[in-house]
Amino acid sequence: MTNQLSVDHLVGIKELQKEDIELIFQTAEQFKNVLNRPIKKVPSLRDVTIANLFFENSTRTRLSFELAEKRLSADVVNFSAASSSVKKGETLIDTVNNILAMKVDMVVMRHPNPGAAKFLSEHVDAKVINAGDGAHEHPTQALLDSYSMRERLGDLAGKKVVIVGDITHSRVALSNIYCLQKQGAEVMVCGPTTLIPKYIHELGVLVEHDLQTALEWCDVANMLRIQLERQDVKYFPSLREYTMMYGLDMKMLNSLSKKIIIMHPGPINRGVEISSEVADCDQAIILDQVENGVAVRMAVVYLLAQKLRINA
Ligand code: CP
Question: What is the Å distance from ligand 1's center to 181 Cα?
Fold first, then answer.
């Protein structure tokens, strides 16, 4: 087992090896133990300064990264595009280089444009972590999703996971597909034809348009939010009709021949993709996902900081 990541930045799951994923999970397990102690902090990154740059809204990812960094004793600065000079026309590279001039070692960035994290990693002298780039990738979400599945199911090889909903606009879907396949899981996507990319089967996933059939097939259902903010045209007649076809309620969940695990990356639209009862039921591990997010992000930040020291 390697003790170093094969990558210098985390821009996507696509670039990771299976061994990287295993290393992140082993490291996260140790940090989860730390988070359950009375003093939830280690001094590992006292010499590291991290900037969290959010050019797009976030609740979970932003707070989770900030907590993870503070639990590792890093110095942390937060930047929100809404209140910055980006509004005055400054470029991404100028913005980030100005921040780096203040001796920042690592950048965690959420950005509306696909490829923004990779672009940044090629143009600035700091470790870069992608906290979501448009409809492209959200690697730490996929890692915390897999970590949470493994807590319930053990090794994911041979396990069946269906991702339901707006696959076209979802960075969570793409990162999960890569992450699950690298661990040997089978992946299906389910949703209306208009929300499933035409060439998705080339990624080796199954496609199913009937929710009940998909749920009967799977061990885990990851229910995605309809990303209205990324939809410039209408992809289905109305939210009410979407819910009738693809919303998961207790009646459907209880009608299945086995108990499946329900996941959701958040934010949830209660009553649209899942009912409130499903979101709060015993089979749902939505808050476990959020809890595990801190440990997984501690692992990613810690392992990239190790590379910072090796490269110094
Ligand atoms: N899951 C997720 O990325 O949530 P936020 O948009 O609140 O960060």
Answer: 23
